[in-house]
Amino acid sequence: MRIHRFHGGMRLDLRKQAALARPIRPCPLPPQLAIPLAARADMAARAVVAPGRRVRRGEVIGRIEGAHGTTVHASTSGTVLAVEARPLADADARAGPCVVIEPDGADDEQRLPPIEDWRDAPRAALLERLRETGIVGLGGGAFPSAAKLAGAQPTLIVNGAECEPYVACDEALLRERAEEVVAGAALLAHVLGAARTFIAVEEAMPQALAALESALHAAPFEGAALAAVPTRYPEGGERQLIQALTGREVPSGGLPQDLGIVCHNVATAAAAWRAVARGEALTARIVTVTGAGVVEPGNFEVRLGTPLAWLVEQAGGYTARAARLLAGGPMTGVALPHDDVPASAATHCVLVLAEHDLRDAAPELPCIRCAECARVCPARLQPLQLLADLRADDTAEARAHALADCIECGLCAYACPSHIPLVDWFRRGKAELRAQAAARANADAARERYRAREARLAREREERLQRSAARRAELAAAQAPTPPISKDAVLAAIARGRARKRVPPPGGESGGDA
Amino acid sequence: MFAALLTLVLVGAAFALALRCAERRLRAARAPVTADAIDALLPQTQCGQCGYGGCRPYAEALARGEADLNRCPPGGMAGVRALANLLGRAPKPIDPACGREKPPAVALIDEDVCIGCTKCIQACPVDAIVGASRLMHTVVGDLCTGCELCVPACPVDCIAMAPVEGRTPPPRPGAAARTQVAAS
């Protein structure tokens, strides 16, 4: 098949061998788990367990309602110690709600009944299963998978093109469990009703490709095709991969669904298959722990909520050269101030860099408008122009220059000869755009409430006026029956009184005699 | 010398005249900006700091061309720029006579001090305060626009403005900020 090119991108030194030297190791249970209720900053689940409650592995502990609804599960059996805010593997280790569990060591698991004959099961039942098992995108986005699969689409892409240096969790999965990925791809294609399914890996992953080939040969399904895409960062970005495979570009501000395409990570496909065919909830994921700063780099099967400190300990601990801890890869990851943060469904890599890997030491220089950033940008943006807009606090202009289309791949900052932290600027700018949109929505809601209140006050005023008018009319009506008294009537009354005095009423005395 | 000067002056005058005529005759027709479009950009705090008693009246005054576009401190410079863009006028700093641009805040009632007089409920333009007579009142934080109108209304001064966490932008990236890029 023909592979197309996308704009920009760079060949990077991959450095994946260190993590792939050993097979996937299970990470032992830590003394305490803090399971994040919000793997994405914009979607926080509501906790449905209280401290003191005993839970089993796979039991629902948090829930998000609505169209993007999903669930969060206990990743081992034990006792809920607290539901509280804990620092997360997020920029500056910002705190977010977590369910803290003390494992009892039994690792007693609760599973849903397997749906063996999923090929005959109704779509709605499979979507419900994915929601109830908390399957979210494991490529780093952690977006609820059921929401992405809600509409039927003709094309499915299963993304194994893990392009970021150091990160090797998907490659390890493909090497060791390719049959799960192929079964998951078949399942997702069935749910979507997709006629075509691409399972994409990079050319630099020959072993993974061979494993996939034999797995697909053993369990073929209709419309499936393997694709090896050139190793060029960020080939594994959703939009870039779609362009490489189909030659079509996702429109600015649009979604792959607009082109009839849905993209899922290979690990998501495998987790979806386990959820359906085995009834397993999402309670663990594969995490790459690597870099010159760890003693024994490798891939670990990690329970969600495991502290990174514990995880690094399983990889032999830090070396003397360890200088920086990142959640995520070197290009898109965020630097963490400490390692007391839990792994979430979005944590695909824990990278510990040594001093010689860093380049902050170089001072930031003025932008010389060399446009190297624009040359490498895979989203075809003008990072230098966006930087000028954001430095001037002109977010409206930055929005007009399509800041929202930035995929934060990090290439502009990497290519910049002036060492300007462009991605930091763009992350902040995008957060600002989101905050402005939220403020706008709040203002519109405030306007509605203001109008409703004005209408209510006007109505109340009107009712008060009507009531007082009615009361006045009532009073007037009460006084109306006393007609004006004429002089003749007064004289007549006086005459009647006098007449009564002179003539005593009949029967007055006779009554007295009786 | 004199002839040269005269020629330049005459040429200048001729161009000035031509430009003036062109400006009059060829002016681009601009649809008048509606008060609705302006109102959509205002922050809807209904605080009255602009001096028009609310967002809608200010939007109407702006649409009529009577008001200046820098009279809305809650909208901030971002709001001024948006208005300037819509109205085709030059942005200018917020009029200090109207107030200062402040970080986002919401009203917070000290519930131990509140006497339940309902004065703040009557003052709140967006129904963000709940409570009943002689019972404690409280501000619904998500609904509060931070207009501060309830603050002077309180007879026991139990309402304070509290900054909103998460709505204040993070610091500007600089040389001190960490970059995540490894050298290869």
UniProtKB/TrEMBL annotation, chain A:
Keyword Mitochondrion in the entry? The reply is no
Compartment(s) of residence: Cell inner membrane
UniProt GO MF annotations: 4 iron, 4 sulfur cluster binding; electron transfer activity; metal ion binding
The entry marks the following residues as binding [4Fe-4S] cluster 2, namely 377, 406, 409, 412
User: Could you say which EC number(s) this protein's record lists?
Assistant: 7.-.-.-
Q: Which GO terms describe its biological process?
A: electron transport chain
Tell me which UniProt keywords the record has, alphabetically.
Answer: 4Fe-4S, Cell inner membrane, Cell membrane, Electron transport, Iron, Iron-sulfur, Membrane, Metal-binding, Repeat, Translocase, Transport
- What membrane topology term does the record carry? Peripheral membrane protein
Q: Where is the 4Fe-4S ferredoxin-type domain?
A: 355-389, 396-426
Q: Which cofactor does it need?
A: [4Fe-4S] cluster
Q: Which GO terms describe its cellular component?
A: plasma membrane
Domain of life of the native organism: Bacteria
Q: How is the cofactor bound?
A: Binds 2 [4Fe-4S] clusters per subunit.
InterPro entries for the chain:
4Fe4S_Fe-S-bd, 4Fe4S_Fe_S_CS, Ion_transpt_RnfC/RsxC, Nuo51_FMN-bd, Nuo51_FMN-bd_sf, RnfC_N, Soluble_ligand-bd
The residues the record assigns to binding [4Fe-4S] cluster 1 are: 367, 370, 373, 416
**Stored NCBIfam families:** PRK05035.1, rnfC
Q: What does this protein do?
A: Part of a membrane-bound complex that couples electron transfer with translocation of ions across the membrane.
Describe the family membership recorded for this protein in Swiss-Prot or TrEMBL: Belongs to the 4Fe4S bacterial-type ferredoxin family. RnfC subfamily.
Q: How is the quaternary structure described?
A: The complex is composed of six subunits: RnfA, RnfB, RnfC, RnfD, RnfE and RnfG.
- The protein here is known as Ion-translocating oxidoreductase complex subunit C
Q: Which organism is it from?
A: Mizugakiibacter sediminis
Phylogenetic lineage? Bacteria, Pseudomonadati, Pseudomonadota, Gammaproteobacteria, Lysobacterales
UniProtKB/TrEMBL annotation, chain B:
Q: Where is [4Fe-4S] cluster 1 annotated to bind? A: 47, 50, 55, 72
Q: What is its EC number?
A: 7.-.-.-
Residues the record lists as binding [4Fe-4S] cluster 3: 124, 144, 147, 150
Q: Which residues form the 4Fe-4S ferredoxin-type domain?
A: 105-134, 135-164
Q: Where in the cell is it found?
A: Cell inner membrane
**Entries under Pfam families matching the protein:** Fer4_21, FeS
The cofactors named for this UniProt entry are: [4Fe-4S] cluster
- Alphabetical GO biological process terms: electron transport chain
Q: What is its main location?
A: membrane
Similarity comment: Belongs to the 4Fe4S bacterial-type ferredoxin family. RnfB subfamily.
What name does UniProt use for this protein?
A: Ion-translocating oxidoreductase complex subunit B
Gene field? rnfB
